Sequence to fold (850 residues):
Amino acid sequence: MLPVLRTTVVGSYSVPEWLERLKTDYYRNRISRSHLREIHDMAIKAALKDQETAGIDVVSDGELRRDNDIDYFLARIPGVQIPVTVKSFYYDYYDTLVVDPLPTDPPPLGLADDYRFTRQYTDRPVKFSFTGPFSLSHRIRNKAYAKSADLVRALAQVLNAEARALAEAGAKLLQIDEPYLAGYPEDVAVAVEAINIVTRGVDVRWGLHVCYGNRYARPSWEGHYDFLFPAVLDANVDQLILEFGRKGYEDLHMIQRLGWDRALGLGVVDVKTEQIETAEVIAQRIRKALETFPADKLIINPDCGLRHLPADVARAKLAAMVQGTIAVRRSLPAALSQEPPSQEPTIEQGA
Amino acid sequence: MLVDFRPTGKLRGSKPVDVTAALGPVVDALAEDSVDLSRVRVVCDWVQYRSNFRDVVDIRPILAAHGHESVLAPVPLAAVVTEDELEVAIDVRRSGDVPLKQLTAGLIRARFGDANPSRIHLEPWLPASASVIWEFNALYWKALDLWEQATGRRYEQALPGGQSDARNRDAVREMISSLFVLWDSLAARNALPEELYVVELGVGNGGQAKTWLDEFIELDREHGKDYYRRLHYLMCDYSPHVLQLARTAVANHDQHVSSFVLDATQPRTALGFLRYKIFLVYISNVYDNLPTDEVAQIGGRTYIVQTRAYLTREAAAEIGQLVAAPPDQVPELIRKLLRLGPALLAEAAPAHFPSIETAVDFWRRSWEALRLEEQYLPLAGLDLYQIAPTVSGEMLRPLLESGAAIRMHVNNGAVASFVDTVPLLHPYGRLVCHDLFVTDVHGYRTGFRGPGKYDGSIVNWVNGPLLAHIGRRKGFDVDYQRFARTGTNIVTMTAQVRD
Fold:
């Protein structure tokens, strides 16, 4: 049974410099795919262990197999062309294009295998995240569709098939990341429409993560989350996972006022600084949020992925996050702190 | 024996360098000694700085031990590594003016370092960035007014061309216009902050700031968006004196200008509150004046260049005579000068310095006479070398991994400044830097890149490929363009967020 104010991660975990070099070696044809896979297997096991040791309730594979948030998916989608597949640095983005419409019945992308591996090495609930169709479309040169929204929808179809495969593999919690959405607030309706295509008929709990970018630990955009509303209210997701630790908590009232009544993933750790928050600071941030949202609606997580943080900093931040959360739990009324959170609706329940 | 003649461009033209005259006496001197000639390198440079830290010829020991063996297992060495023993360095610009063979022979005989009685050392062997020469450099900026009084000319006149390249109006207008394009597009998306920050690191006498702000007003008037009202121009400099001069120069913009005394290697100490908020960071002729180490790849092995500052006994005697001190007391007086500055030195040691002018004269003569000897210390591993507080020596790997022979600057201060500055940039912000950049590592194989002396300060070229690599790892595209003004070595570096 998960506690109230359960802790989790957004997705990515610290990528140490040695792993970056090895990944880059792969993209320069210096090591083989099978060796890289074994390296990733070891790194994921270590990342799971780190999260468990820190006391994280819902863990992830750290997205350690991925070169970045885009290419890992685009490189697997039939119909997406990549003219140059060598990279000078693994984290670089490919130049990708589509010249013909994407296949409507694509083969699996292999994410279910990634999930199965992770599931095998932890007893804790696993969150599995992938980049959403809107953000994926923004890294593709579109020569196939008259409207960019059609490319977004086509990518959503591909991801829907993959989500079904993930659910079949046992995934219970899937998260769609839309790191580009904050840069194109005028397109939020298209993004939400595509999210609903991805989630259609997939009986799991769904999260939607929207941040202001974390490429090289920098924000790509600035602003407020008001742009998400009211469109996001129509998204078939159970959790909205947002960035607050770095930006402050001013948007919380607005989010509540505009009608968000489902679970909120509360970013309490700034992933763009190596400065480690104390447990007291984390507790203060959670208490601030509790003034607006009830405890059973809050999930505690970092602002975004931890990939750019050194491993020791990532570990310390997660540990502080857990300790701060425990301190708040202890201060909650006994009935609330001992009860499991209210059941989040699934898609079938009509979120 | 390997001969590395770097200034290959000087072998042609109307007055080509006579290689025989430069090398023959040196090889003769080596041949007459017992040194193992198969483990000797001879390196020829053309040192373009009239005032510099080198003698015409010098000997540089190449050490075999790196000092970490006692605590770490032996570092594996590639089979191709050659164990050179010493390097003879010749400045071919001046080698025709001295008895080269005699000088070389004397140095070889005294090659075991401290045995050379003609030199008085100011410090032990240190990485170049930690040398006392940087204390001289810092003193120059702190006590610039006294130096300028003594020389009768402003420091800017010591720059090549007599002025800073930052005043080029066309370049400034281009920069401002591109800012307007960006701001317009952000404004159209309701994403333009109310306050528009521009930062200048190293303001000189304020000429650049004045040019920039004057042009800004004019272009803003034409543009019609009233961006000047929202503009905050932050001038930052290490020297309060320089900053005061700059403030005077931009007095008519005082409502829009703030000034900060700060160390360019740590801009966030004062500007941390502007993280992700600055649209333009402007830097001109700063990086070339910040402490730097040099690393070298010799015979398949990586070394750090260690230096040791010295005065010739002859120079120390002359300087000592000026302040009633024997030659061996001169280093102690120099240390006192660097600690106190010339004004306080005159108060603290009146027996040697009856006036501030005497102290400044002592400073200038010591600086002029200052030399550096060098040796190569093997690096046990790039990870054991720290370029800057948050930058590992691993960043050097792409530049060294070919194994080809090279010696290049690390520009520790510039790297520290760069990595501490870019986090301040707005997601669409840019860092623009005019400086002496080596834009291709090959540039280190064909020219001398410092250190040299500009008046009382130091100049080193900046390792462009290294900054580009580090920038790339931080998510920035780093681009180099030759500066618009003709007849200058200045290059413009632009860094902006990738993707």
Chain A touches chain B through 14 residues (CB under 8 Å). Confidence is low (pLDDT under 50) at residues 345-351 of chain A. Residues 36 and 189 of chain A are 39 Å apart (CA to CA).
